[in-house]
Amino acid sequence: AKAPMRVAVTGAAGQIGYSLLFRIANGDMLGKDQPVILQLLEINDEKAQKALKGVMMEIDDCAFPLLAGMTAHSDAMTAFKDADVALLVGARPRGPGMERKDLLEANAQIFTVQGKALDAVASRNVKVLVVGNPANTNAHIAMKSAPSLPAKNFTAMLRLDHNRALSQIAAKTGKPVSSIEKLCVWGNHSPTMYPDYRFATADGQPVKAMINDDIWNKDVFLPTVGKRGAAIIDARGLSSAASAANAAIDHVRDWVLGTNGKWTTMGIPSDGSYGIPKDIIFGFPVTTENGEYKIIQGLEIDAFSQERINLTLKELTEEREGIKHLLP
Ligand code: NAX
């Protein structure tokens, strides 16, 4: 039998945590033959810790055969000890009257502390996925706060945006999602992201020719995917949770187990590809193999796409400027 993998999850008593933990323990993320130990972090607050205990009681009550252990923490230094995978879901939500700048700063503090803790105690191969918003910039901060870990181990979640785009394209073309390949989302996890189906195929046939409608792309597809989070809040009264948890599972599963040559989207530190400055955490099309991701190279960037990429890059550059003084 395989040795258990340690999976740390922050914000474990939150909405996304409630959809995420059960699936990890069920083997959906790391495989049905891979035992897991859950190391769950919540804020040092009586209510949050009590709620976490409640979630853990329910996880116990599932009697998951793959669950080899589970612990509750209020300190990142113990929660991240020897972690093989760290899902950084907990973040400071925007409160009433809070400016974007305040939000960035509050989160910068959290992700500086957590980056340092990962640096100090996690496995040297820890795979980190930041879900908590602003996800790309939070991932950047954690990465910069963990100088002894490889920068490539820090990623941000664009997969929900990718999956949203996939489902919209499937609906538009009338093809099953499973037939669609070579889709990607560039940039920031925010409404400025650029979902791109110019290279996509359905059953091997070009999707762009099937749709053949640039107005639909610009006026329907991009805003629908970009504003999907807001549409969910409007409909449900709560932000996306199960779909976000599902995307986190997809992201880590593909990273660890490989995509077999298929494209997916990950928010990763740029290596300079496509003119994105090094270390900016940016959504790129990637394939994964043996636990490593590789950016798809050589894609043509037309004028419209360049404009969209510049827009989302500008936002990320501004976010980075906004927290620069807080970085170690
Ligand atoms: P909830 O508010 O339900 O849960 C967050 C939990 O995190 C709370 O229980 C809170 O106590 C905990 N927390 C806060 N700071 C913490 C810290 N420093 N250490 C440990 N725990 C901490 O939010 P939820 O709906 O679960 O969303 C979590 C985050 O995901 C939010 O930042 C949200 O904006 C973000 N999202 C990101 C998405 C993405 O695609 N990247 C999509 C979904 C989601 O909106």
Automatic annotation (TrEMBL):
The active site is at H189 (proton acceptor). NAD(+) binds at G11, A12, A13, G14, Q15, I16, G17, N107, Q114, V131, G132, N133. GO terms for biological process: malate metabolic process; tricarboxylic acid cycle. Its EC number is 1.1.1.37. Residues 5-154 form the Lactate/malate dehydrogenase N-terminal domain. It catalyses: (S)-malate + NAD(+) = oxaloacetate + NADH + H(+). It comes from the Bacteria. Keywords: NAD, Oxidoreductase, Tricarboxylic acid cycle. The keyword NAD applies. NCBIfam families: MalateDH-SF1 (TIGR01759), PRK05442.1 (NF003916). This is Malate dehydrogenase. It comes from Oxalicibacterium solurbis. The lineage of its organism: Bacteria, Pseudomonadati, Pseudomonadota, Betaproteobacteria, Burkholderiales. The gene is mdH.
